[in-house]
Amino acid sequence: MTVAISCQQVSKTYETRNGPVNALSPCDLEISPGEFVVLLGPSGCGKTTLLRMIGRLHDHTSGSLDLTPVEAGETTTGFVFQQANLMPWMTVEENVALPLRLKKQPKATRMETARDLCSRVGLENFTKSWPRELSGGMQQRVSIARALADDPQLLLMDEPFGALDALTRTRMNSELERLWMASGATVVLVTHSITEAIMLADRIVVMSARPGRIVSETRVPFPRPRGTQIENTPEFQAIAADLRSQLEH
Ligand SMILES: Nc1ncnc2c1ncn2[C@@H]1O[C@H](COP(=O)(O)OP(=O)(O)OP(=O)(O)O)[C@@H](O)[C@H]1O
């Protein structure tokens, strides 16, 4: 089963030594099971804050934020952050298997799952490598495989490809789309990149800063799997121009 998300008038104020910081004004957002939603916006508009509240890493200050199925602990969530954050003393396959080890899955089973995931992200020849032996893009693939290890119903990704070069990033977008299509998980991904948003999203939620808020939602009509050729279509360019003008205002 995948997860639906319902945010109603959800806001966040951080209490700091210099006083309260209004990170996110009350916002409404409904996400369907299996939907791929991208949060797009400038720095400081509250994207990470909203993502972390959905993942229960932060409390919200007001409003209601429900995941369905609702029972606490029932939702399995995978996180991918901008940095891969791998354990340097573990091999690639041990890193991928870590969530299953924490769940006390028997070693033979979890390593088999980990090796399968490694090949799904194109790292079948690097299962015994150390993280330091991998490029940034490969490390990020390990962190995606690790996030998928637990077969999550919900995948939360915060600028997962922000540190990668443009070519690698494009390739990773296609890989992520393929993995998501196979998993059926609900995905919320944060990005600054208009192209990445259109390549990946079913729906793009545009946010703006000061105060952080949701300003619009755009459905992306392209069929899947999407290839880079859609970038040259008038439809793509029209959506990109519209998003760009929203971000500029
Ligand atoms: N732990 C925190 N304590 C205090 N203020 C915070 C904290 N985390 C974020 N903020 C503030 O909340 C606002 C929104 O931050 P957030 O990281 O959610 O934005 P963002 O859109 O994800 O930005 P970026 O794209 O730069 O990562 C910013 O003004 C930030 O300074």
UniProtKB/TrEMBL annotation:
Keywords for this protein: ATP-binding, Nucleotide-binding, Transport
Secreted listed as a keyword: no
Domain ABC transporter: 5-234
Pfam annotation, one family: ABC_tran
GO molecular function, one term: ATP binding
Annotated InterPro entries: AAA+_ATPase (IPR003593), ABC_transporter-like_ATP-bd (IPR003439), ABC_transporter-like_CS (IPR017871), ABC_transporter_ATP-bind (IPR050166), P-loop_NTPase (IPR027417)
Homology family: Belongs to the ABC transporter superfamily.
Protein name per the record: ABC transporter, nucleotide binding/ATPase protein (Nitrate)
UniProt source species: Salipiger bermudensis (strain DSM 26914 / JCM 13377 / KCTC 12554 / HTCC2601)
